[in-house]
Amino acid sequence: MEESGAHRVAVVSGGGTGIGRAIAHALAADGDEVFVLGRRRRVLEEAASTINGGLGEQRVHALCADLRQPEWVAEAVRQIANRTGTIDVVVNNAGGNFAAHPKSDLDGVRDDWRTNFEGNVLPAVLLTHALLPRLRRPGGRIVTIGSIAAFRGPATYGGSKAALHPWSAELAVALAPEGISVNMVAPGYVTETEFYGDRMGPELHEDRSRRAPAGRGADPSEIAALVRYLAGAEAGFVTGQILQANGGALLGRG
Fold first, then answer.
1. What gap in Å lies between CA 47 and CA 106, rounded to an integer?
2. 199 versus 96: which is more confidently predicted?
3. Whether the predicted pLDDT of 199 surpasses 90
4. Is the dihedral of CA 126, 128, 20, 61 positive or negative?
């Protein structure tokens, strides 16, 4: 039987903006102590300060770390371990399309694939495996943010997100006997994020919104709500799944 209690500890990578920030806010609002990780210290600290200010409690803590690098991951986990014991929730949100303007020469193609693999796969895999010894048994939750792109491109970004599918499934099978669930959430177009950078404008927004029968993009809070469910005690029997959240842009019939 899973352990329960009001106080849990969660780790959210890429927690400074967009989906990650919304997830951190949702978990902290439930009373969890949340560590937000990312490469931009000022962004992380601003997110933590704003969320804490709104809640009136110091529940969110910022840790700067390049999660592509094993030494940075190890140091982040050490700092978390110094402040708390068992980890209840791991949310792998860090990532993005780091090759938004594809190159055509061989060196460029190699760099595009390598950059997106390192930016999307390594942060999830390294952080999760570093935290596994401290994850609650039973009752631990691992949620990884994937993408609709894993099912329909673009190639280097979609391919890197798709690589997380078998990894997450394998982990789910291995950890199920210990009472740990492992799932993925695959959003479609989400508004109010940094994903598109300076490419985002009214025309691109309208184009992405039209692709979903719902006629709009998701708010980050809607993705956070799904993660909040998967991270909760009531979702203990849901594991090894990829949950789509795309307004009908890609229908799940598997």
1. 39
2. 96
3. no
4. negative
Spacing of C-alpha 175 from chain mean position? 19
Using alpha carbons only, what angle is made at residue 126 by residues 124 and 129, rounded to the nearest 5 degrees?
A: 100
In this prediction, residue 252 carries a pLDDT of 81
Least confident of 78-92, 110-124, 136-150, 191-205: 191-205
Give me the pLDDT at residue 37, please: 98
DSSP per residue, the chain: -----S--EEEEETTTSHHHHHHHHHHHHTT-EEEEEES-HHHHHHHHHHHHHHHTS--EEEEE--TTSHHHHHHHHHHHHHH-S-B-EEEE-----TTSS---SHHHHHHHHHHHHHHHTHHHHHHHHHHGGGB-TTT-EEEEE--THHHH--HHHHHHHHTHHHHHHHHHHHHGGGT-EEEEEEE--BSSSSTTGGG--HHHHHHHHHTSTTSSPBPHHHHHHHHHHHTSGGGTT--S-EEEESTTSS----
Q: Catalytic positions, please?
A: 157
- The answer to whether the CB of 143 falls within 8 A of the CB of 128 is no
CB neighbour burial string for 189-207, b if at least 16 within 10 angstroms, e if fewer: bbbebebeeeeeeeeeeee
Whether the CB-CB separation of 170 and 179 falls below 8 Å is answered with no
